[in-house]
Sequence to fold (153 residues):
Amino acid sequence: MSIYDITVKDNKGNDVNLGEYKGKVLLIVNTATGCGFTPQYDGLQDLYEKYNDKGFEILDFPCNQFLGQAPGSAEQIESFCQVNFGITFRQFAKIKVNGKDESPLYEYLKSEKKGSIKWNFTKFLVDRDGNVVDRFAPTVTPEKLDAEVAKLL
Fold:
């Protein structure tokens, strides 16, 4: 199995096979709009703007498992992120990253880089071949990932 065998839902409820991202460098993030780390959306957007034309994508998965910090509908989350942070990268449907009803995507990511997800804004970096090359704690800001992303591009 590879990451490209996984299908997720976008924030409109449509199926998205991650195979469409073959050949791209991915940063996969579980996000929340009401978290102390929410301002990281600014840094994520900056990284996206800097590297998107070189084959970089950010996959944003809102997750409400940590103190209910991602409340609201997909439309409300999308609006919040666009109004407050101007994000233009792709957002997906809310998911669970741990436990019962855990997303198959996060099962896979955690099998590649061990450990449960402890909080919002945990980041996984995936190379152009679909290999999960690194995992970053929520405290690691997007700005600190710049050199890692650049190396993979």
